[in-house]
Design goal:
Blueprint (H helix, E strand, L loop, with lengths): L8 H25 L4 E7 L7 E6 L10 E5 L16 H7 L4 E5 L15 H20 L5 E6 L1 H11 L6 E7 L5 H4 L4 H11 L7 H6 L13 E6 L8 H13 L3 E6 L8 H15 L3
Parallel strand pairs: 3-4, 3-5, 5-6, 6-7, 7-8
Antiparallel strand pairs: 1-2, 2-4
Helix pairs in contact: 2-9, 3-4
InterPro entries: AB_hydrolase_fold (IPR029058), BD-FAE-like_dom (IPR049492), GDXG_lipolytic_enzyme (IPR050300)
GO molecular function, one term: hydrolase activity
Pfam families: BD-FAE
């Protein structure tokens, strides 16, 4: 026997329409709740024209889940620009999905005017981090920070991670870093000339400046985990600089990983960078 429905077909059509529209409304609300991606160019953290940073905030970010990766460019403390990061930005996005990313400019030493001797660069990173911390809530990102850099930028990242460390620095990623400027001084004529100018003397005439500018001298047991990479054929910063860092981190019992990169010099191929960045993400895990 066929049982008659108590409700006409038009009722079920109406009910389905209401449920469908309600579901669409929820999806729209969820989409609206998600913050869109945002890029902030040349944000000033000081009055000098070089004291600027670029900020890349991902879509759907939140203060609970969105961590921050900061990149410091290289250039021997006399050259370079934050735009260097754009060369590896797609690779970083693949290796560290969902991260906010910040790339920093800092004052460079000028041979002509002899302005901005070290520690101007160190002071700029401290000022930039202070500015970033003041903006974390506004940017809707967390307090978990990874510092990274290449060459002179790696030196500054390590120096800040150890000497000027704050608890929100959860790790450091360093590519072919200078770590002991006293031993680096005599590597070649360019190194000797450059460091004499930038530091305002030699390791014999201003030893404290060299010691205070060398990350290896500040490694201690409560410093952040560190992963660092060095090309075996590097002719600009010798691998002994990373070997000295490895010794300092072992002695201080700091979690670390030192990766020697065969057949690579002072700068890696895109394929190598991609693999190393993934290795770095694995090293840090979900900090």
């Amino acid at each position: 026997m066929k049982i008659q429905s108590l409700f006409p077909k038009s009722f079920f059509v109406f009910l389905f329409s209401i449920l469908f529209l309600y579901g669409c409304s929820l999806n729209q609300e969820n989409e609206l709740d998600q913050l869109p991606a945002l890029e902030i160019s040349n944000a000033s953290y000081g009055i000098d024209p070089r004291q600027k940073m670029d900020v890349f905030l991902p879509a759907g970010r939140s203060a609970e889940k969105t961590r921050v990766l900061i990149y410091i460019h290289g250039g021997a403390w006399i050259d370079g620009d934050k735009s260097e990061f754009l060369q590896v930005k797609p690779l970083v996005e693949q290796a560290f999905p969902g991260f906010a990313m910040i790339t920093i400019n800092y004052r460079l030493y000028d041979f002509a005017s002899r302005q901005n001797r070290f520690p101007a660069q160190e002071e700029d990173i401290k000022a930039a981090l202070l500015y970033i911390r003041s903006k974390l809530a506004e940017w809707d990102v967390s307090e978990g920070i990874l510092l990274s850099g290449a060459s002179a930028g790696a030196h500054l990242a390590l120096l800040h991670g150890y000497k000027n460390r704050e608890d929100d620095i959860k790790g450091v990623i360093a590519f072919f870093p200078p770590t002991d400027l006293t031993s680096l001084f005599g590597f070649n004529n360019l190194t000797t000339l450059g460091l004499t100018e930038i530091m305002g003397g030699t390791p014999q005439t201003v030893p404290l400046i060299y010691q205070n500018a060398s990350p290896v001298n500040f490694a201690s047991s409560d410093d952040p985990p560190t992963i660092f990479f060095h090309g075996e054929t590097d002719q600009v910063v010798p691998m002994t600089q990373s070997e000295r860092l490895e010794t300092a981190l072992k002695n201080a019992q700091i979690k670390h990983e030192f990766v020697r990169v065969p057949n690579q010099g002072h700068g890696f191929t895109a394929e190598t960078n991609a693999a190393l960045l993934i290795q770095a993400n694995t090293f840090f895990g979900d900090f």
